[in-house]
Amino acid sequence: MRCAEHCAVVANRPVATGQFEMEIHCPTVAQYAQPGQFVQIRVQCGYEPLLSRPFSVFRRFPEQGNFSVVYLVRGTFTRLLASKKPGESVFVVGPLGNRFAVAQPAEDTTHLLVAGGVGAPPLYLLAEEMIQHGVPRDRIVVVNGARRHDLLVCQEQFADLGVRLWTVTEDGSLGERGKVTDVLRALYGRSELLHDRCQIYTCGPTGMLEAVAKFARKHQLPCQVSVETMMPCGLGVCLGCAVKVRTAEGTDYKRACVDGPVFDAAEVVWE
Question: Is the C or the N end of the chain the one with fewer CB within 10 Å?
Protein backbone atom coordinates (compact mmCIF):
# COMPACT_ATOMS: atom_id res chain seq x y z
CA MET A 1 0.00 0.00 0.00
CA ARG A 2 1.20 3.48 -0.89
CA CYS A 3 -0.25 6.96 -0.58
CA ALA A 4 0.32 10.04 -2.74
CA GLU A 5 -1.65 12.85 -1.17
CA HIS A 6 -1.66 16.07 0.79
CA CYS A 7 -1.37 15.22 4.48
CA ALA A 8 -1.92 17.37 7.55
CA VAL A 9 0.97 18.29 9.82
CA VAL A 10 0.03 17.18 13.34
CA ALA A 11 3.12 18.50 15.12
CA ASN A 12 6.48 20.00 14.16
CA ARG A 13 8.53 20.10 17.32
CA PRO A 14 12.21 20.84 17.96
CA VAL A 15 13.98 17.87 19.53
CA ALA A 16 17.51 19.32 19.68
CA THR A 17 19.44 22.30 18.34
CA GLY A 18 18.50 22.60 14.68
CA GLN A 19 16.60 19.29 14.76
CA PHE A 20 12.87 18.80 14.34
CA GLU A 21 10.46 15.89 14.47
CA MET A 22 7.48 16.36 12.17
CA GLU A 23 4.42 14.24 12.87
CA ILE A 24 2.15 13.80 9.86
CA HIS A 25 -1.34 12.33 9.56
CA CYS A 26 -1.21 9.64 6.89
CA PRO A 27 -2.92 6.36 7.85
CA THR A 28 -1.34 4.44 4.97
CA VAL A 29 2.23 5.22 6.02
CA ALA A 30 1.36 4.80 9.70
CA GLN A 31 -0.01 1.32 9.04
CA TYR A 32 2.37 -0.08 6.45
CA ALA A 33 5.81 1.58 6.74
CA GLN A 34 8.62 -0.82 7.64
CA PRO A 35 12.07 -0.11 9.17
CA GLY A 36 14.32 1.23 6.43
CA GLN A 37 11.52 2.50 4.20
CA PHE A 38 11.09 6.19 3.46
CA VAL A 39 8.63 8.78 2.19
CA GLN A 40 9.04 11.56 -0.35
CA ILE A 41 7.85 14.90 1.00
CA ARG A 42 7.10 17.99 -1.02
CA VAL A 43 6.71 21.08 1.07
CA GLN A 44 4.66 23.28 -1.25
CA CYS A 45 3.06 23.31 -4.69
CA GLY A 46 5.21 26.02 -6.29
CA TYR A 47 8.46 25.71 -8.19
CA GLU A 48 10.82 26.58 -5.31
CA PRO A 49 11.89 24.09 -4.18
CA LEU A 50 10.77 22.07 -7.19
CA LEU A 51 11.69 18.55 -6.13
CA SER A 52 10.57 16.46 -3.19
CA ARG A 53 13.02 15.07 -0.63
CA PRO A 54 13.33 11.59 0.92
CA PHE A 55 12.92 11.12 4.67
CA SER A 56 13.20 7.85 6.56
CA VAL A 57 10.19 6.92 8.65
CA PHE A 58 11.13 7.45 12.30
CA ARG A 59 8.07 6.52 14.34
CA ARG A 60 4.62 5.12 13.58
CA PHE A 61 1.41 5.73 15.49
CA PRO A 62 -1.06 3.40 13.71
CA GLU A 63 -3.96 4.00 16.09
CA GLN A 64 -3.83 7.74 15.41
CA GLY A 65 -2.97 7.28 11.73
CA ASN A 66 0.23 9.29 12.18
CA PHE A 67 3.93 8.83 11.49
CA SER A 68 6.95 11.05 12.02
CA VAL A 69 10.24 11.99 10.39
CA VAL A 70 13.31 13.69 11.87
CA TYR A 71 15.27 16.33 9.97
CA LEU A 72 18.09 18.82 10.43
CA VAL A 73 17.57 22.39 9.24
CA ARG A 74 20.27 22.80 6.60
CA GLY A 75 18.92 24.62 3.57
CA THR A 76 15.90 26.13 1.84
CA PHE A 77 13.83 22.95 1.85
CA THR A 78 14.28 22.12 5.52
CA ARG A 79 13.79 25.76 6.54
CA LEU A 80 10.42 25.65 4.78
CA LEU A 81 9.68 22.34 6.46
CA ALA A 82 10.53 23.81 9.87
CA SER A 83 8.11 26.69 9.24
CA LYS A 84 5.14 24.35 8.82
CA LYS A 85 2.49 24.69 11.53
CA PRO A 86 0.02 22.06 12.76
CA GLY A 87 -2.96 22.00 10.43
CA GLU A 88 -0.93 22.95 7.37
CA SER A 89 -0.16 20.27 4.82
CA VAL A 90 2.71 18.62 2.99
CA PHE A 91 2.52 16.28 0.01
CA VAL A 92 3.58 12.75 0.91
CA VAL A 93 4.35 9.75 -1.29
CA GLY A 94 5.08 6.47 0.46
CA PRO A 95 6.04 4.23 2.01
CA LEU A 96 8.78 3.59 -0.56
CA GLY A 97 11.77 1.30 -0.93
CA ASN A 98 12.68 -1.90 0.84
CA ARG A 99 13.33 -2.65 4.49
CA PHE A 100 16.01 -4.08 6.75
CA ALA A 101 15.80 -7.87 6.96
CA VAL A 102 16.07 -9.03 10.56
CA ALA A 103 18.50 -11.91 11.06
CA GLN A 104 16.89 -15.11 12.33
CA PRO A 105 16.53 -16.52 14.90
CA ALA A 106 16.22 -12.92 16.06
CA GLU A 107 16.26 -13.66 19.78
CA ASP A 108 19.56 -15.55 19.51
CA THR A 109 21.34 -12.94 17.39
CA THR A 110 23.26 -9.87 18.50
CA HIS A 111 21.84 -7.03 16.40
CA LEU A 112 24.40 -4.26 15.96
CA LEU A 113 22.82 -1.00 14.77
CA VAL A 114 25.32 1.63 13.63
CA ALA A 115 23.90 5.12 13.08
CA GLY A 116 25.53 8.26 11.74
CA GLY A 117 23.72 11.60 12.07
CA VAL A 118 20.37 11.60 10.29
CA GLY A 119 20.88 7.91 9.55
CA ALA A 120 19.54 7.16 13.03
CA PRO A 121 15.72 7.30 12.47
CA PRO A 122 15.27 4.07 10.45
CA LEU A 123 17.47 2.22 12.93
CA TYR A 124 15.34 3.47 15.81
CA LEU A 125 12.25 2.09 14.09
CA LEU A 126 14.10 -1.19 13.54
CA ALA A 127 15.10 -1.45 17.21
CA GLU A 128 11.56 -0.64 18.29
CA GLU A 129 10.16 -3.35 16.02
CA MET A 130 12.68 -5.90 17.31
CA ILE A 131 11.63 -5.22 20.90
CA GLN A 132 7.96 -5.52 19.97
CA HIS A 133 8.72 -8.93 18.44
CA GLY A 134 10.41 -10.20 21.56
CA VAL A 135 14.11 -9.58 20.91
CA PRO A 136 15.80 -9.06 24.30
CA ARG A 137 17.00 -5.49 24.76
CA ASP A 138 20.49 -6.66 25.67
CA ARG A 139 20.71 -8.30 22.24
CA ILE A 140 20.34 -4.90 20.56
CA VAL A 141 23.57 -2.88 20.48
CA VAL A 142 23.36 0.68 19.13
CA VAL A 143 26.38 2.77 18.19
CA ASN A 144 25.17 6.32 17.57
CA GLY A 145 27.70 8.72 16.09
CA ALA A 146 28.08 12.24 14.73
CA ARG A 147 30.72 14.92 14.29
CA ARG A 148 29.47 16.87 17.34
CA HIS A 149 27.01 16.23 20.14
CA ASP A 150 24.46 18.66 18.67
CA LEU A 151 24.38 16.61 15.45
CA LEU A 152 23.45 13.36 17.21
CA VAL A 153 19.96 12.23 16.23
CA CYS A 154 17.55 10.06 18.26
CA GLN A 155 19.96 9.89 21.19
CA GLU A 156 17.31 10.20 23.90
CA GLN A 157 14.92 7.93 22.05
CA PHE A 158 17.50 5.14 21.81
CA ALA A 159 18.22 5.54 25.53
CA ASP A 160 14.51 5.31 26.33
CA LEU A 161 14.31 1.96 24.51
CA GLY A 162 16.67 0.46 27.07
CA VAL A 163 19.02 -1.05 24.49
CA ARG A 164 22.81 -1.16 24.83
CA LEU A 165 23.82 2.29 23.63
CA TRP A 166 27.29 3.59 22.79
CA THR A 167 27.69 7.23 21.81
CA VAL A 168 30.61 8.55 19.78
CA THR A 169 31.44 12.05 18.54
CA GLU A 170 34.44 13.01 16.45
CA ASP A 171 35.23 15.98 18.69
CA GLY A 172 34.62 14.09 21.93
CA SER A 173 31.84 16.46 23.03
CA LEU A 174 29.67 13.49 24.07
CA GLY A 175 30.52 9.85 24.61
CA GLU A 176 33.64 8.35 23.07
CA ARG A 177 35.95 10.48 20.93
CA GLY A 178 36.45 9.20 17.40
CA LYS A 179 34.42 7.48 14.72
CA VAL A 180 31.85 4.70 14.92
CA THR A 181 34.41 2.23 13.59
CA ASP A 182 36.65 3.00 16.57
CA VAL A 183 33.85 1.84 18.85
CA LEU A 184 33.22 -1.22 16.68
CA ARG A 185 36.86 -2.23 16.98
CA ALA A 186 36.73 -1.74 20.76
CA LEU A 187 33.58 -3.84 21.04
CA TYR A 188 34.79 -6.62 18.80
CA GLY A 189 35.80 -9.70 20.72
CA ARG A 190 33.72 -8.78 23.78
CA SER A 191 30.43 -10.37 24.79
CA GLU A 192 28.52 -7.56 23.09
CA LEU A 193 29.44 -9.03 19.71
CA LEU A 194 28.87 -12.73 19.28
CA HIS A 195 30.96 -13.53 16.22
CA ASP A 196 28.89 -16.48 15.00
CA ARG A 197 25.53 -14.76 15.47
CA CYS A 198 25.96 -11.04 14.83
CA GLN A 199 24.21 -8.94 12.21
CA ILE A 200 25.14 -5.34 11.43
CA TYR A 201 22.58 -2.80 10.22
CA THR A 202 23.84 0.68 9.38
CA CYS A 203 22.64 3.98 7.97
CA GLY A 204 24.53 7.25 7.65
CA PRO A 205 26.95 9.16 5.41
CA THR A 206 28.53 7.21 2.57
CA GLY A 207 32.03 7.38 4.06
CA MET A 208 30.77 5.88 7.30
CA LEU A 209 28.86 3.14 5.47
CA GLU A 210 31.99 2.20 3.55
CA ALA A 211 34.05 2.03 6.74
CA VAL A 212 31.45 -0.13 8.49
CA ALA A 213 31.20 -2.37 5.41
CA LYS A 214 34.98 -2.86 5.44
CA PHE A 215 34.87 -3.71 9.14
CA ALA A 216 32.12 -6.26 8.50
CA ARG A 217 34.01 -7.82 5.60
CA LYS A 218 37.23 -8.06 7.62
CA HIS A 219 35.48 -9.90 10.43
CA GLN A 220 33.10 -11.86 8.15
CA LEU A 221 29.98 -10.33 9.69
CA PRO A 222 26.79 -9.97 7.64
CA CYS A 223 25.98 -6.30 7.12
CA GLN A 224 23.09 -4.36 5.63
CA VAL A 225 23.54 -0.72 4.64
CA SER A 226 20.85 1.87 4.03
CA VAL A 227 22.34 4.37 1.60
CA GLU A 228 21.84 8.11 1.92
CA THR A 229 21.49 9.62 -1.52
CA MET A 230 19.29 12.21 -3.16
CA MET A 231 16.16 10.68 -4.63
CA PRO A 232 14.49 13.33 -6.79
CA CYS A 233 11.43 11.23 -7.65
CA GLY A 234 11.49 8.25 -5.29
CA LEU A 235 9.83 6.06 -7.92
CA GLY A 236 12.76 4.84 -10.00
CA VAL A 237 11.97 7.03 -13.00
CA CYS A 238 14.64 9.74 -12.92
CA LEU A 239 17.64 7.43 -12.27
CA GLY A 240 19.13 10.11 -10.03
CA CYS A 241 19.89 7.72 -7.16
CA ALA A 242 21.94 5.04 -8.93
CA VAL A 243 24.09 2.80 -6.72
CA LYS A 244 26.93 0.78 -8.26
CA VAL A 245 26.73 -2.90 -7.31
CA ARG A 246 28.58 -6.14 -8.01
CA THR A 247 27.00 -8.75 -10.24
CA ALA A 248 28.01 -12.17 -11.54
CA GLU A 249 29.05 -10.49 -14.80
CA GLY A 250 30.94 -7.62 -13.17
CA THR A 251 29.15 -4.46 -12.06
CA ASP A 252 25.83 -2.78 -12.69
CA TYR A 253 23.66 -0.06 -11.21
CA LYS A 254 20.58 -0.28 -9.03
CA ARG A 255 18.15 2.45 -8.03
CA ALA A 256 18.29 3.27 -4.33
CA CYS A 257 14.65 4.30 -4.23
CA VAL A 258 13.29 1.07 -5.74
CA ASP A 259 15.94 -1.63 -5.25
CA GLY A 260 17.05 -0.09 -1.94
CA PRO A 261 17.68 1.95 0.06
CA VAL A 262 18.81 -1.15 1.98
CA PHE A 263 21.52 -3.27 0.34
CA ASP A 264 23.82 -6.09 1.36
CA ALA A 265 27.06 -4.25 2.14
CA ALA A 266 29.05 -6.83 0.17
CA GLU A 267 27.01 -6.01 -2.93
CA VAL A 268 27.83 -2.29 -3.02
CA VAL A 269 30.87 -1.03 -4.94
CA TRP A 270 32.42 1.64 -2.72
CA GLU A 271 34.26 4.28 -4.74
Answer: C
Please give the Cα distance from 222 to 244 (Å, whole number).
Answer: 19
Map out the domains of the chain with their CATH numbers. 3-96 (2.40.30.10), 106-264 (3.40.50.80)
Write down the pLDDT at residue 46: 58
Residue 48: pLDDT band with limits 50, 70, 90: low
Identify the three-state secondary structure at position 218.
Answer: helix
Q: How confident is the model at residue 50 (pLDDT cuts 50, 70, 90)?
A: low
Overall pTM > 0.70: yes
CB-CB contact of 9 with 85 (8 Å): yes
Q: How far apart are CA 7 and CA 89, in angstroms?
A: 5
Three-state DSSP class for residue 16:
strand
Q: Which of 160, 140, 165, 154 minimizes the C-alpha distance to 71?
A: 154
Widest pairwise Cα distance in the chain:
54
